[in-house]
TrEMBL record, chain A:
Name under which the protein is recorded: Spore germination protein
Keywords: Membrane, Transmembrane, Transmembrane helix
Cross-referenced PANTHER family: LEUCINE ZIPPER PROTEIN 4, SPORE GERMINATION PROTEIN
Family the entry assigns: Belongs to the GerABKA family.
TrEMBL record, chain B:
Native species: Paenibacillus vini
Main localization (coarse): membrane
Signal peptide: 1-19
Domain Spore germination GerAC-like C-terminal, first and last residues per copy: 215-384
Subcellular location field: Membrane
Membrane topology designation: Lipid-anchor
Residues covered by the Spore germination protein N-terminal domain: 24-199
Annotated family: Belongs to the GerABKC lipoprotein family.
Cited InterPro entries: GerAC_N, Spore_GerAC-like, Spore_GerAC-like_C, Spore_GerAC_C_sf
Protein name: Germination protein
Keyword Lipoprotein part of the UniProt annotation: yes
Keywords: Germination, Lipoprotein, Membrane, Palmitate, Signal
Keyword Disulfide bond among UniProt keywords: no
Length: 512, 400
């Protein structure tokens, strides 16, 4: 095998200076690569190659460089490095086929270089064809913080971070069972992004893991910067606005998906993990719904549903009623709408699009603007759009109410990407309302409904359990049943292991 | 995929071809809040439209700070024109207006007194036929002319149409919507009626302030007004039609040391009617009124805690209600001879064959010969917050 590698020109020669030149050639114009020469007491020389800033300097010095200088011969080398990498927990290391996590040897130069680029330290030795890789990687990381995109009042405050390892830990800490499988996949020819598929072996929807793996292995792409790349490359209908994969920053939400038989895809370098399959109803369920009183949660769900519909059609209904069906507005309301529209020069459709667009602009600017300026924008926006525009007679006060209501309503989605979908669909609905009135609105809603019914996420109908109807599943859609009555996992994904609770868990006062 | 995209593109583009067909902005319509019809010259009609002027209605905050001067103002504007038909007249009003006349929100249709007497069917056809339907709006007859009522300057509300609408909705006296009026007009065995609107002074004598009130009912025969019922008779009509929602009944107490009156508020009124044809072919209508009332005023010294007293009070209430109803029925039967109560229709429903065979043709004469029996049940639910009456102490009385 050694000889084969060398013949291919992908291995080391065994001559130190030549090998060093090989590395230096490959890592040409990489000023962050450092080469550290060391000499064993036997006189044998070698090099440590590592990338500054990705290696734990103190440990490198204490656990590698210092022992090396005291070392008699190369026989001890592997052992020393092993000790360093494993933090003192040495194991027998024989041959080159070690796959122990923190120390390994590679024959192929390419693999050695990949390891180097991911933060490993390489050791090469005169007269040795093996590349020794010690994992002493360490770089600056954000600590576990409260997820910015999904805050809760009641519930865990930890959120995923950019580190894959931390994220896996956050899940593992919530599911202490060997049943929890974490499979690793790498995607990206340049980025070589590590990904992990996390699922419960006994619960996961049959065939789902293979399907997910297959879809991910299909991907050949140079870089994966965020899980959004993966989401778009594995979804069922790539032309849909609706998110068919749930993304979340919350470990509790990810774990609840795993427990329901779903697969969670963790991607390195992003705090957003993917949960597949993603269903429509999930985007209206906040993780907090399950922590708070179920009656309150039910009320919130109804509110959320109503506001979701409002976010989609409220401006269009305003347009349709004021330009086509004035007879449908109660007389006194019509008079006050007419009074507020008296000086407005635009037709209702243009007026509404103008306002909606400026609201969207305000929202976008609010995200993009540097923090110190952000506050100024919101004040100016509120003043200009809310007050000045009305007083100047450019838009009507009624419309400002409509737009602000819609604006608030479009933020109620616990899954932000569903809010985006509704926000986008609002504009075609407005155009339909402006050209065909209420007829247009219902035409648009019908088309949307047909699309949603057709949509599938990893084989599961997107609107399930509503369409196709599964009566048991409705316990957790419009209303949130109390925990003691939700004895089964959702049917569409939890078929493999339906029961999640024993018998009658309803608490009762003791009989005495 | 490409085909679908092209199809979608064509569908989207065809949407814009409609060019907002039949679209009209809120500020391009003239909202008609009330319609008045009077007799014009040379057999023409005079159509008056009360238009709501949104600018004058304002949005509250921007129009604030109005003082008493504002009270003499109204947000309505009455435009009128003469013409041969309603349609033609409405077009000639349209000619004078920058905005499209919009009828759908008309609250009330008012017909002038002389117009009502000469027949209303030819002017109402338009409102039944036109697409901006107003079947829901109220129908009323003005004591003078319709435009007088439309030009009334309201104190409450911004428009006189609102005043009329709210007053009619309260149903202190019987009121009627256009659809009911037309139904009565076109059905057999029932004749239409309509409330009369009148402008009166707010206080007795000469007062600069005027009120717009419903005073009695106009009784129609076919489509012509043939007479009117005064307030009390109209209330009787209210009872017979079983449309009473609220009201007060007052009785006089003659016995006891101190004479006085007792007033009761009606809590619930239910009037049912039964039709009967006797052996001789004589028809009889039996009205049964079920009344619950609360006594809220007692100016006599009658102690309502004594059950015999309560009984006699109830008897007096019964008599009072009976009188009210009979008074109304007798007036209509004897003087006006127009079946606004719909007794004929009730007979038709109960005895359809007999009705068709022998009554339909001569109903007008038969109606006035009909016998009525009235039977009232009164329950007094509460005596108010106190059972006692305000009494001057006995000793003081004796001293006098």
């Amino acid at each position: 095998m050694n000889s084969k590698a060398r013949e291919d020109g992908t291995g080391l020669t065994g001559k130190l200076e030549e090998d060093l030149a090989l590395f230096q050639g490959k890592m040409e114009r990489c000023s962050d690569v450092e080469y550290h020469k060391f000499t064993l007491q036997s006189g044998k020389q070698g090099y440590l190659i590592f990338i500054a800033g990705m290696t734990d300097d103190t440990r490198l010095q204490m656990e590698v460089i210092d022992p090396l200088s005291r070392m008699e011969s190369e026989q001890d080398l592997s052992g020393t490095l092993k000790t360093a990498g494993n933090g003192g927990n040495a194991k027998d290391l024989s041959g080159s086929s070690s796959d122990a996590g923190q120390l390994r040897t590679e024959m192929e130069l390419e693999q050695g270089l990949t390891g180097l680029c991911k933060g490993d330290t390489i050791a090469i030795l005169d007269g040795c064809r093996k590349i020794l890789l010690v994992s002493l990687s360490k770089w600056e990381q954000r600590s576990v913080e409260e997820p910015a995109s999904e805050p809760v009042i009641r519930g865990a405050r930890d959120g995923f971070t950019e580190s894959l390892q931390t994220n896996t830990t956050l899940i593992r800490r919530r599911l202490a069972t060997p049943d929890l499988k974490v499979e690793s996949i790498q995607v990206g020819t340049l980025s070589k992004t590590d990904m992990e598929l996390v699922y419960l072996d006994s619960v996961v929807m049959p065939g789902l893991v293979d399907e997910v793996k297959q879809r991910i292995q299909r991907i050949v792409i140079d870089t994966v910067l965020e899980s959004g790349y993966i989401e778009e490359l594995i979804c069922d209908n790539p032309f849909s606005v609706f998110p068919q994969v749930i993304n979340t920053e919350r470990p509790d939400r990810a774990v609840s998906g795993i427990v329901e038989g779903k697969v969670v895809i963790l991607v390195d370098n992003t705090p957003f993990v993917l949960v597949v399959p993603g269903l429509f109803v999930e985007t209206l369920q906040a993780s907090e719904d399950y922590y708070q009183n179920y009656i309150f949660s039910t009320m919130t769900r109804f509110l959320r549903l109503g506001l979701a519909i409002g976010a989609l059609v409220f401006p269009s209904i305003y347009i349709a009623l004021t330009t086509f069906h004035q007879e449908m507005i109660p007389a006194s309301l019509l008079l006050s709408i007419a009074a507020s529209r008296e000086a407005v020069p635009f037709p209702a459709l243009i007026e509404a699009i103008l306002m909606e667009a400026s609201f969207e602009g305000l929202r976008e600017a609010g995200i993009r603007l540097p923090r110190p300026v952000g506050q100024a924008v919101s004040i100016v926006g509120a003043l200009v759009i809310g007050q000045a525009a009305v007083q100047a007679g450019i838009v009507s006060a009624t419309l400002v109410i409509v737009v602000s209501f819609t604006g608030i309503a479009s933020f109620i989605f616990p899954i932000y990407s569903q809010g985006l979908a509704f926000r986008v669909m609002r504009f075609p609905m407005m155009l339909l309302a402006g050209s065909l009135g209420l007829y247009g609105i219902f035409l648009g809603l019908l088309v949307l409904l047909i699309h949603l019914v057709k949509l599938r996420s990893f084989g599961v109908p997107y609107l399930s359990p509503i369409i196709p109807l599964q009566a048991a599943g409705l316990k957790d859609v419009f209303v949130r049943f109390p925990w003691w009555s939700m004895k089964e996992r959702p049917l569409q994904t939890g078929k493999a292991n339906l029961r999640r609770m024993k018998g009658n868990m309803r608490p009762r006062p003791p009989k005495s | 995929m490409r085909k679908a995209a092209i199809l979608l593109l064509i569908a989207t583009m065809s949407m814009s071809l409609t060019a907002c067909w039949s679209n009209r902005e809120v500020n391009d319509i003239a909202i008609v809040s009330a319609i008045g019809i009077d007799q014009g010259n040379n057999g023409n009609i005079r159509l008056s439209l009360q238009l709501a002027v949104p600018l004058l209605i304002g949005t509250g905050s921007s129009q604030g700070g109005a003082g008493t001067t504002k009270l003499a103002d109204t947000s309505g504007w009455v435009v009128s024109e003469e013409g041969a038909t309603v349609m033609e007249t409405y077009r000639s009003i349209q000619q004078k207006l920058p905005r499209q006349i919009f009828f759908s929100h008309s609250r009330v249709i008012i017909v002038g007194h002389s117009m009502a007497e000469s027949g209303v069917s030819q002017v109402l056809d338009f409102f039944e036929r036109y697409r901006e339907s107003q079947m829901k709006s109220y129908f009323a007859v003005s004591a003078t002319t319709a435009s007088d009522v439309l030009n009334y300057l309201p104190k409450f509300e911004r428009l006189s149409s609102e005043v009329i609408f709210e007053e009619l909705k309260r149903r202190v006296l019987p009121t009627v919507r256009l659809v009911d009026f037309l139904n009565a007009l076109q059905s057999e065995g029932v004749e239409p009626f309509a409330p009369i609107l009148e402008i009166t002074a707010s206080e007795n004598g000469e007062s600069p302030y005027k009120n717009l009130v419903i005073s009695g009912s106009a009784v129609f025969k076919e489509d012509k007004m043939i007479g009117k019922l005064d307030d009390n008779e109209a209330r009787g009509l209210h009872w017979v039609l079983d449309t009473v929602k609220e009201g007060v009944v007052t009785i006089e107490i003659e016995e006891g040391r101190r004479k006085g009156r007792i007033s009761a508020e009606l809590e619930k009124v239910n009037v049912s009617r039964k039709m009967k044809i006797g052996e001789s072919g004589k028809m009889e209508v039996r009205l049964h009124a079920d009344v619950s009332a609360n006594i809220y005023e007692n100016t006599s010294d009658m102690d309502l805690e004594i059950s015999e007293n309560t009984k006699s009070v109830i008897d007096l209430f019964k008599k009072q209600i009976e009188n009210r109803i009979t008074g109304s029925i007798q007036k209509v039967q004897r003087e006006l001879q127009s079946d606004i109560f719909g007794f004929g229709q009730s007979i038709y429903r109960r005895y359809p064959l007999t009705w068709k065979k022998s009554y339909r043709e001569q109903w007008d004469t038969l109606f006035s010969e009909m016998e009525t029996k009235i039977d009232v049940d009164v329950r007094v639910l509460r005596n108010g917050l106190t059972n006692k009456t305000i009494k001057i102490s006995d000793s003081e009385v004796e001293q006098k």
